[in-house]
Amino acid sequence: MDKSIFQPYEDEIQALEEEIRLLTEKYEDIRQESTFFSDEEILKAIKSFQRETQEETKGHESLSDLKAQLESLETDLSFLMKFTGFHFTSHSKKTVEKTRNRTVQKHRLSGKCHSLSFQLQFQLLEMQNNEKVSAVVSDLSIIMESREDSNVSKFVSSIEEHGDLLTFFRSLSTYAEWYEHRRRTFLHFK
């Protein structure tokens, strides 16, 4: 038989296979993305999870043990929020690239430290060699409400340049605490 008769069908099959591959990749990307959750949505999810675990815990840990663990985690989270002054309001994560020993993710994070709002956007490159995992932050972008202070602007620019998130969070915690003290003091004298 003449192969030219089947060629349009083979081309159509290849086009459909490519479309299926692209749609599968898009679906995986969407599935891996985190969405923004409000405190209310988080509480609904916790309550829903508690209801589900009640049904599934037959034969597993007792429900009272799970409730105790959840309360313990909530207490720990509350303590950390009070201790550090950080309250994260949203987080999203999108996997940009994933191979066997390398993962690139794009993160967006927003929240407050005491009364100062902030937003971060960065890429996180995780590489695994043998049993070691190393992470590198790049493309860091920081938005803060108190950028009118030139010292804060210089500090934020330096942090963005070096991609040093740990220093940012440590310094923001101290700065925001004293910023709140100064604000209260000035309000007292008004």
The biggest sheet, with number of strands, parallel, antiparallel or mixed sense and barrel status, is:
4 strands, antiparallel
N-C termini distance: 95 Å
The strand line-up of the biggest sheet is 1-2-3-4
Question: How much of the residues is beta strand, in percent?
Answer: 25-35%
Total separate domains: 2
Q: C-alpha Rg, in Å?
A: 24 Å
Arithmetic mean of pLDDT? 81
The quaternary structure here is single chain
Number of helices: 5
Based on secondary structure, the structural category is alpha+beta
Task: Give the CA-based shape.
Answer: extended
User: How would you spell out the order of helices and strands?
Assistant: HHHEEEEHH
- Please bin the fraction of helical residues: 55-70%
**Total strand segments:** 4
In terms of per-residue confidence, which ranges show pLDDT below 50 for 5 or more consecutive residues? none
Protein name: CENPP protein
Keywords: Coiled coil
Organism: Rhabdornis inornatus
Pfam families: CENP-P
